[in-house]
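Bug #2210: token dump truncated for Glutaredoxin domain-containing protein?
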Amino acid sequence: MQVAKRSTPIQMEVGAGGGEATESKTTAESTYDQIRHLASGNAVVVFTINGCCMCHVVKQLLFGLGVGPTIVELHDKAAGREIHAVLRHLAGGDTHQQQPFPAVFVGGKFLGGIETVMACHINGTLVPLLKDAGALWL
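Reproduced locally. Full output below:
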């Protein structure tokens, strides 16, 4: 069995947002483009934050399956807040029902958070998704 190379955590840097609405929108679009580029360039990308136990669970699940995801750890910086806002939007808008972390992308597409990843694992669709994305060879 071959295992995809395990990536080391990285910190994603994007430009800081400004005070103007136009500049803020441009920054959000730039942040979205950077997330999209990172997700499309890697088989599996996991966005995490420090101290998040569910982020740890998702990483351990993927490592246990033999997947080496690209892990983006966000810290309390301006760039982290911008990425957090984009991931919250992807996770279902501004509702507080769905937490944006961990945010898992598989094959360049947003899979979801802990609930979606665990549901896919339990119903048997996670491994085929990972195989299709090239993250897992069995």
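Output looks complete on our side. Confidence is low (pLDDT under 50) at residues 1-24. Marking as cannot-reproduce; reopen if the truncation happens again.
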